Structures are given as C-alpha cells and as structure tokens.
Amino acid sequence: MDLKTKKIKYVLCVSVCMCVCVCMISLFITVKNEKLTPSGKNIMAFYVENSDGEYVEREEKVFPTTGYVLNLEKSYCKNGGTLS
Length: 84
Description:
With 84 residues, this protein is mainly α. The protein has one helix at 3-36; strands spanning 47-49, 55-57.
C-alpha cells in the first residue's frame, strides 16, 4: 500500500470512530434526560377540602389564582423542597 491509501484509510477510520462516539454520547444524553423527566405522571397534585373536612384531589389541573390560601401544615414537597 502506498502512503496516500494509508492516509485515506486512516482519515476514514478516524471519521467513523468520531461519528460513532458522537452518536453514543447523544444517545446517552437522551436516555439520561428521559429518566429525569417524568412521563405520564402528575408533577403536582392539588387537593381541596370538602365540607366534611376531608381533602380530595382536584380533577381539573387549572389551579385557582384568587381566593386560595396555602395550608402549610398539609402542603409538602416529596423531594425535600420547601414551600413559602
């Protein structure tokens, strides 16, 4: 083999390796992001107190903007966050 053919094979091999690495890194990032993002799960639940004092989850996901008082005794974050 002459030097030109070896050089072409080397460049081609390096290019293929780089493409494979980029694809694998891209796939890894995509899989990692999918694990972090909940799919099909409610991220936030909203409960309303009934007339008998029991709390039930509100079905509609439109939260009130007025006339609502946050009950800090009953409100919490599962991931250790704080409410204010």
